[in-house]
Specification:
By secondary structure, the protein is an alpha/beta fold. The protein is 46% helix and 11% strand.
């Protein structure tokens, strides 16, 4: 009986754990901004580990000058950040938030050495410390988490006022568990239960941070400075090292850490909300908010009591010994039924299936987590005017790269939008018609003459369907747009790519697995009775050819500094689906295709993640000849393992695109 009850308990606990984990994953906020921070300065307190380190890593990856203020040695953290991002403009400075003298020395140094400060992230904090008072007469946890940051922010306001800047307080949902009064602001109530004492002090510090953030926002509303607070989530970081107190039950500690590891976020996941508050353009003029998982959240009741908050602020000014000239002026503000049942049941089943597919897609979705900075590097993206190409161009421009968008459509609007979003002026558009070899040759001649390097080539452009026709080059139009054009383009740019350690990326598709490619139908595709089937087979053949080309480029270039990989972005709702079904085909089928894509498919931003990862990830610097799905290696169609078949397809491709002898890879590499 006892064993049976225990079994039921474990099963219920397991199911609850799975449900909770899935809920946390699905509701987890993620920074999707592509803002470039070149020329901007960021200060992060407590940036050597946990959330602070991940935030420093992400912002350094955007090209910012990052200053880490911490009480511990910052050398190792800085070396790691520089090594990962290739951004050498990262420095560390000593800052002890439990000492007002240390805070003042730090701020004096910053105000003297720096000419601007764009983002101040008050991140440092402790989950618990023995209840004692510092040399400043302040409760140690209150001083580290709140009073130190309160003084720090005041002393850096003049520097922040020089530009459009942001203040971010890293608070916690623990603010809702406070017992804050004016009397216990610096004299916390002590309970018999050690954990309760620790939790209340911690909750009070976090409520004070929200109050401070709100009042900074109010006082600075007529300036170019915004102030917001965030809750990062329950994150497995060093802040919880003594959260249950040093004398608390060992079993309780172990259970706490077990729960933290099961349901908690990683430091990188937890840092996303503060990274988003630092980067998101849509938050430029947003102030006085409290964010959870990158979206605004309601605040504790006391944070809305303006009279109470005013008194906490004034008491804080007194406790940190603010001089009159350092204070900010406070501003006060104001049978038929059977058929129906069958139909509803069918709808319910479809909804459940759609929900399962959606959850599966969300949980398995790959996400680029690289923080590599691309300042000084050049990227070329075909078809970068819309869809995944546009999102990839936006992301890489956000990392500081010079981005060249090659497209048959006018790129003016897209280029302007990317520059506006990322503040990276090095984004240009050039005309390229992949269905014309003359256009490809003119384009490559221009690139080779104007550019001194090419670090990343992303063969992204493509169509799902085009009218069944042949181009002026005598090639099937869809095959030339998706494959032959890129095959020639890549050959003609190899000489430029050889100058640096570079990457070739072919944006492919899982449709390659259903190809019917043979030597005979390579440029003379089989026409089926069903128009959609004809289009689909040509599309899948073009994708198999792209995968074969990627593998052979990888093999032929293995002794150079160039890698070549292919990828499947997923089912993505982009303009490529516009003609996926011939306009003359059944309208209901077209609508059905779009409905499936909308439910189970990715947005262009989500679909672009694998190619962005292939372009950025340092782990892939020496990886070549692979096929990636959701940022992970995936097996390839069986045809790609037939070396003789692939070799013949390559040889026929050289003939179809009319490669000159000196343009063939073996001669370029001599």
């Amino acid at each position: 009986m006892v064993l049976s009850a225990l079994s039921y308990f474990l099963i219920i606990f397991l199911l609850w754990s799975i449900f909770t984990k899935i809920f946390c994953k699905l509701t987890m906020g993620w920074c999707k901004s592509n803002t470039c921070l070149i020329g901007r300065t960021v200060i992060i307190t407590g940036g050597t580990s946990g959330l602070g380190f991940q935030t420093a890593l992400a912002l350094a990856g955007r090209g910012a000058r990052v200053i880490i203020g911490d009480v511990v040695d910052t050398k190792e953290a800085i070396q790691n950040i520089i090594e990962i991002t290739q951004n050498t403009n990262v420095v560390g400075k000593f800052l002890d938030l439990s000492s007002l003298d240390s805070v003042r020395k730090f701020c004096d140094e910053i105000n003297k050495d720096e000419n601007r400060l764009d983002v101040l992230i008050n991140n440092a904090g402790v989950g618990s410390l023995p209840n004692r008072y510092t040399n400043d007469g302040l409760q140690v946890q209150m001083e580290i988490n709140y009073f130190g940051h309160f003084l720090l922010t005041h002393l850096l306001i003049n520097l922040l006022k020089k530009n459009k800047s942001r203040i971010i307080f890293v608070s916690s949902i623990g603010a809702f568990l406070n017992n804050l009064t004016l009397e216990n602001l610096n004299n916390p109530a002590i309970y018999n239960n050690e954990f309760k004492t620790i939790a209340k002090i911690y909750g009070n510090t976090k409520l004070c941070q929200i109050i401070a953030s709100n009042i900074f926002a109010e006082k600075l509303k007529n300036t170019s400075i915004t102030s917001n607070a965030v809750h990062p989530g329950i994150v497995c970081t060093p802040i919880y090292s003594n959260v249950l107190g040093t004398n608390y039950m060992k079993f309780a500690k172990q259970m706490f850490y077990l729960g933290l590891n099961i349901f908690g976020k990683t430091a990188q996941e937890g840092a996303q909300t503060q990274i988003n508050c630092a980067l998101a353009k849509e938050l430029e003029n947003v102030s006085g908010e409290y964010f959870v998982d990158c979206i605004p959240f309601y605040q504790p009741k006391l944070a809305k009591n303006k009279e109470f908050c005013r008194k906490i602020w004034e008491k804080s000014e007194e406790l940190v010994k603010l001089k009159p000239e350092e204070k900010l002026i406070y501003t006060r503000t104001k049978n038929t039924s059977n058929i129906t049942m069958l139909f509803l049941s069918l709808i319910a089943i479809l909804v459940v299936i759609a929900l399962i597919l959606y959850i599966y897609c969300q949980l398995t979705m790959g996400w680029c987590k690289s923080n590599t900075c691309l300042v000084g590097k050049t990227v070329l993206i075909t078809g970068g005017n819309s869809g995944m190409g546009f999102q990839t161009a936006m992301a890489l421009a956000g990392r500081g790269a010079k981005v060249i968008i090659a497209d048959v459509a006018d790129t003016t609007k897209s280029v302007q939008e990317i520059i506006k979003e990322t503040h990276n002026e090095k984004v240009i558009g050039k005309f390229l018609d992949l269905s014309s070899f003359d256009s490809v040759r003119r384009f490559c001649c221009e690139i080779n003459n104007e550019e001194s390097r090419l670090d990343i080539l992303i063969n992204n452009a493509g169509m799902a369907a085009l009218p069944f026709a042949y181009t002026n080059d005598g090639l099937q139009q869809l095959m030339q747009t998706n494959y032959f054009g890129h095959f020639l383009l890549t050959h003609l740019l190899i000489g430029l790519m050889k100058r640096t350690k570079s990457k070739i990326i072919f944006v492919n598709s899982l449709a390659a697995f259903s190809s019917d490619l043979t030597y005979d139908n390579f440029n003379k595709p089989t026409k089926y009775n069903l128009d959609f089937k004809t289009h689909y087979k040509i599309y899948s053949n073009s994708k198999l050819c792209g995968l074969i080309a990627s593998n052979i480029f990888a093999e032929k270039l293995k002794n150079t500094s160039i890698t070549s990989n292919a990828l499947h972005p997923g089912i993505v709702v982009t303009p490529i689906l516009t003609n996926a079904v011939n306009p003359e085909y059944h309208k209901w089928f077209k609508n059905f295709l779009y409905a499936v894509a909308k439910i189970t498919g990715k947005t262009p931003f989500e679909g672009a993640q694998t190619q962005i990862n292939c372009a950025l990830s340092k782990d892939l610097d020496n990886v070549s000849g692979k096929y990636f799905v959701d940022c992970k290696p995936f097996f390839q169609p069986y045809q790609t393992k037939n070396k003789e078949f692939c070799k013949q397809i390559w040889k026929m491709s050289e003939e179809f695109v009319k490669l000159k002898n000196e343009e063939k890879l073996e001669n370029i590499l001599k």
